[in-house]
Amino acid sequence: MTVAILMGSRSDLDTMKKAAGILKEFNVAYELKVLSAHRAAESVREYVQTASARGIRLFICGAGMAAHLAGAVAGQTTLPVIGVPLSGSALAGQDALLSTVQMPKGVPVATVAIDGAYNAGILALQMLALADPTLAARLEEFRRKMTEEVLQANTGLE
Ligand code: RP5
Fold it and tell me: How many Å lie between the centroid of ligand 1 and the Cα of residue 20?
């Protein structure tokens, strides 16, 4: 497995599976797990400590509310951690955004938009592509197609 996709609750799955979807599209192997930072802290520790040995190269962590999952993971590894703040709380994800992005000095979490799991997947691919020319070429092609689709929206506009 290459990427660990973690989420604080089973209810986060609908959003977090968008990260899994794009990794699947690029044939990058992933693990998908529910692991609560506050309610299963010991399991998070054990998971992170054994991840590298299983081939995990980076983490994507999604959580709502106080959202400490990404930070809790980042504090226990030097592998890159991408954080996805999730909406659904009384504060519509603003709480998760701030607690995910505002990490203390020395322990970064690369935070994407609220519910931005798809972009978290893309960012993970871009990180992996640094050491994988085939993946890098596929990402170039993916971007080229995206640009083409955007420009095609002009057809027949006037
Ligand atoms: C849920 O609480 C959220 O969606 C979130 O992922 C989770 C956070 O749980 P802890 O990690 O704080 O236990 O309602």
Answer: 19
The whole-model pTM stands at: 0.95
Beta-bridge partner residues of 49: none
Sheet with 110-111: strands ordered across:
30-34, 3-7, 58-64, 81-86, 110-111
Give CA separation, 86 vs 65, 106, 115, in Å. 8, 24, 5
Residues framing ligand 1 (Cβ under 6 A): 7-9, 11-12, 36-39, 63-66, 69, 86, 88
Structure tokens at 13: 């799955």
Residue keyed to tokens 């190269």: 57
Ligand 1 atom showing the smallest separation from residue 12 Cα: 4
Query: For 42-85, how does the pLDDT look when each residue is reduced to its tens digit (9 = 90+)?
Result: 999 999 999 999 999 999 999 999 999 999 999 999 999 999 99
Task: Tell me the CA–centroid distance for residue 145 and ligand 1, in Å.
Answer: 36
Phi then psi for residue 6, to 5 deg, are: -115, 150
